[in-house]
Amino acid sequence: xTKATPGGSIEMLKHLHEYLDEHFRTLHAHRQxxxxxxxxxxxxxxxxxxxxxxxxxxxRGAVTEGFDxxxxxxxxxxxxxxxxxxxxxxxxxxxxxxxxxxxxWERGPQWKTYDNRRHIxxxxxxxxxxxxxxxxxxxxxxxxxxxxxxITHAIMPVDLQRQMAQLLYEARAILTSSMLxxxxxxxxxxxxxxxxxxxxxxxxxxxxxxLGHIAAALLSGDGEGSPYLVQSTLARLVDxxxxxxxxxxxxxxxxxxxxxxRSAGFLPANTSSGKERQGQYTYTASHPRLLxxxxxxxxxxxxxxPDLTTLQAENDQISEExxxxxxxxxxxxxxxxxxxxxxxxxxxxxxxPRPGTPIIQLEQGSxxxxxxxxxxxxxxxxxxxxxRKQPGGLAVEIKGGFVRPGHEYCLVGRTGxxxxxxxxxxxxxxxxxxxxxxxxxxxQTLNDVEIAQLAATGLSVVSNVSIHPVGVVPASWxxxxxxxxxxxxxxxxxxxxxxxxxxxxxxxxxxxxFPLEWPKGSQSLIFALEGLSVGTHEVHVALLSGDxxxxxxGGSLAVTIRDPHSNLEDQTEGSGIRLYATPARPKLTEIWDxxxxxxxxxxxxxxxxxxxxxxxxxxxxxxxxxxxxSFPFTDSAWTKLAAQEFRTGKGKLQSVYSVAESCEVSxxxxxxxxxxxxxxxxxxxxxxxxxxxxxxxxxxxLIDRTGRNETQVLLYSVENPxxxxxxxxxxxxxxxxxxxxxxxxxxxxxxxxxxxxxPNWLRQRAGTQPIIRCTGAPLxxxxxxxxxxxxxxxxxxxxDPFSHHQRKLVLDAITTxxxxxxxxxxxxxxxxxxxxxxxxxxxxxxxxxxxxxxxSQAQRDVARYIARHLWQWSKSLSxxxxxxGEAIAPITASTGIGNPRDAADFxxxxxxxxxxxDGGDSTELDRMLKCVLVSPVLIRAARFAILGIExxxxxxxxxxxxxxxx
Length: 966
Known about the structure:
Elements: H1 9-32, H2 49-64, H3 69-72, H4 76-88, H5 94-101, H6 110-131, H7 138-143, H8 148-153, H9 161-170, H10 177-180, H11 183-191, H12 199-205, H13 208-218, H14 231-242, H15 245-263, H16 269-272, E1 289-295, E2 298-304, H17 316-324, E3 327-329, E4 346-348, E5 360-362, H18 367-376, E6 384-390, E7 394-397, E8 402-403, E9 408-414, E10 425-428, E11 435-441, H19 448-456, E12 460-461, E13 465-469, E14 476-477, E15 482-486, E16 491-497, E17 503-508, E18 514-517, E19 524-529, E20 535-544, E21 551-562, H20 568-572, E22 578-582, H21 588-592, E23 597-601, E24 607-615, E25 621-630, H22 635-646, E26 662-669, E27 673-680, E28 686-692, E29 698-704, E30 712-716, E31 724-727, E32 733-734, E33 740-746, E34 749-755, H23 759-764, H24 778-794, E35 796-797, H25 802-823, H26 825-836, H27 845-852, H28 857-873, H29 877-895, H30 900-912, H31 922-934, H32 937-953, H33 958-962
Parallel strand pairs: 8-12, 15-21, 34-35
Antiparallel strand pairs: 1-2, 1-7, 2-4, 3-5, 6-7, 6-9, 9-11, 10-11, 13-16, 14-15, 16-19, 17-18, 17-20, 20-21, 22-23, 24-25, 24-26, 26-27, 28-29, 29-32, 30-31, 30-33, 33-34
C-alpha cells in the first residue's frame, strides 16, 4: 500500500477503502476464472503488519468519534477489521471480544449496539455481492446469523487449526486428484469425517465450500502457491499450524499424500470411467448385510449394522437424530438403544424383514432423515437370498447370487415359492416366519439343465473366468462377486481362466477398455487398480481372441472402497474394554443431569478404575475423581454413581461444573485395556450462565450469539409450570425463591435451564404441588401438556441439587394431569388422592387401581393380567413392553390404535415420560391420542402398570428403568 497517510480518520478510511476495493476486485476476477469459481475472503487483504496496524487504529478512531454516516461510507476497513477479530475468536462470545478490542463500540443504548452489529452484517453481504466473498452456510450460519460472517471470512480461527490439521491427516488415504481439483468435493468428503471432533469444529465444517477451499489451499504445501488463498494468508495459516510439532507433522504427511495423488494415477482417464461418478466421493453408507447364524438346530437371521456416520455431511439434522433416537430394525421387535447406529455391530432378528419396509428407521425421526436412511441402507429385495456357509456356524449373503461348483450354501426364500427341483437342494430349518430355508450342496460339475433351473431362481454359476483379491487381505470378501478395501490399501486383483488367451481388457464403471497382455503359459493375470474413489465400482474383465480381438469370455467383481474414518467405537475401544453411551456422544449437560447413561464391558468380574475429569475451555483440569467398578458396569450402576456425585450436593464436582466445558470419562485396567469418552458442553447460539451472589441468591445471564433482535425469554414458576412470564433478554434474571425454569427462544435456537429454589423456602413450603389447569378441548390440552413436559424435561439442570427435585415435581405433576385428562373422572380422582399421599402407599392401592382400569369383562381381564405380572415386569423394561402388549392385545382391535406392541410402547411413554412423544410425526401422534381419548382404558392400563411397579419398589428403581423410554 502507498506510504501516503492522509490526515483525519475519515480521509484515512477513504484511502484504505479505495486500496482494498482495487485489491479485492482484482482477486475476485482471478477467482472467477477458476473452474469452479472460488470465493474471496476478507482475511485475504494482503496488508503488511504495519498497514494492518494502521487500519485497526483508524477503525478504532472512527468508533471513538461516533461511528456516524461519514465513517460508515467507507466500509471495507470495517469488514477487514471484523474478520481479524474473527481470527482471534475462540468460541466464547464474539461481541465482547470485539468490544474489548474496540473502545466505545457498545457505548449508548442497546438498540444502537444492535444497529452497529447489523451494519457489520450488511457490509459483509455487500462484500459477497461486489467481490465474490464467501457466504456463511450450514449449521453455524443458521444459528449465528451475524457473527457467522466475520468468523467465516476469518477462514479458520486459531483454536480450530489443530483439528483441521488432524482432519487432513486422517483423510489423507481417501484423497483423489478429482477432489484436490474441486474444493466442493473435497469439502463434502472432509465434512463426512468430523463426527468425532468438537461440536464447534463440526459446525465450522458444515460450511463445506469454506472447508474445501481451506483444505485445498493447505494441501498445496508451503512453497507452492494456491489459487484458493493469497500467499500471505496461506503462509499465515501454515505458520500458525507449525507452532505445534504434532500439528505440523499431521499437515506435512497430508501434504505428502496430496503430492503423491497428484503425481500418480489410475488407468488413463478415459478408462476409469466415461461416467460422471469417476473420482467422486460417494456418501453411501455401507449397506446393512444379512447373515445367518446356526442356533438351536436351524438358522437365525442376523443383520450387520452399517456405519452411518458418513451421512452426517448431507444433513445437519441427521447427526443429532442418529445420536439421540432409537433405531427400529425391521425384523426385530424391540428398538435398539439410542445412538446404536453410531456403534456398528451385529443384531439378531426375530423375523425375516418384510418386503417394501425400510430395514432401518429412527423412532420418531423426521421424515427427511428416515427417507435418507431408507435410500442409503437397503438389503436384497428377494424373493431369494443366497448365503455361503463358512466355518463357525455362520453364513454370509452372496448378493450377486453366484454359486461355485463344490461349495455349500443356504438358500432362503419367501413362503409360497419353491426352490429348483434338484437332488442336491434339501429343506433346512430357519428361525423366522414367512420364509423357508434350503441347504444347497453344489456338485463339482453341473449340466445345462441344472444351470437353467438355477437361473430361473435368479442364481448363476460362476463362469470359467474368476476375479478375486490377492496380496493385502481386503476388509471384506464374500468369496464370489464382491470385495471391500479401506481407502489407501492397494487393490490387487487376480484373473484366473481355464481358457487360453493372449490378451484381456479391463473396464471400470463401464468406461473405455484398458488392454492388458496375458502372461504366456499362465492361467492367471495379476493387476492393480489405483486411485479408486470411495464408493462402489464395477470391474469387468473380458478375455480377447488373438485374431479379431473380440471378447469370448468374461467375469466381473464389485469393488467397494470404504472410508477408513474413525467411528465412535474405534475412539472408545480398548484392547479388552468397551465404553458405550446412550445417547451416543452425550453432551456434558446430559451426563450431568441424568439424561444420558454410560456402560462398560470387560472381562466379567474384573475390577477397573473409572475416572471422571472436568476441564475448562482451555483444556485445563478442574476436577479429577476416581471410582473402582466391576465388569459388567451397567447403565443403572452409572445412574447411581452420577446421582451420588452430581446431584446430591456433596460431590466436589458441583463447585466447578459451571465453568467446565468438557468431561472425560475413562475406564482402565492394567493388562486389560483402556477406553474413554469426551462429553462437551456444546457450542450453542443461546446459553444460560448462572451466578451465585454474596447473599446466597442466584442470578442467571443469557449469552445470545444469534445476532438477531428477536430472542424472547420466558420465566416459568414451579407453582404454575405451564405459564411463562416475559423477561428482559438483555438483563440478568433474579431467580425466584421457589425456583422455576427460564426458556429463551430465537428462531430455531432454544436454551432452557432449571432454576434452584431457596432451601429455606423449600423447607417451609414442603408438600406444595404445582397447579395445572386444563380448561380446553381434551386433544389440544393433551398436546400442550406433552409439549410443556418436553420443555421441562430437556432443560439443563443448574449446579444446585434442589433444581433436580423441583423439575421432578413438575414432571410428575404434568404426567398426572395428562393421565387424569385422558383416563376419565374416576381415575382422575384416584390420581388426585394418590398425589396427596406420602409413602409408603396404602396396601390396597394396587387393588383399587386394578378395579379402576375398566368395568367390562375384557377390561377386567386386562387389569387382572397386569396385576399378576407386575413383579415380573418390574425387573426388565423389555419384559414390561412385551407384557403390556400382550395384556392389551385383546382390546386393541376395537380401539383402532394398531399393533399391540407398538401401542404398548406409545402408552408407556404417554403414562410415564410424555415429553418424549413431542417432536415426532404430529399426524400420527394426533391419531394415537384420539384413540386413547375414545378408549381411555388404554391409558388406565398403562398407568396401572407404571404406578404399580413404582409402588412395588417404592420408587427406588423407577427412574433408572423408565429412563429407557427416552
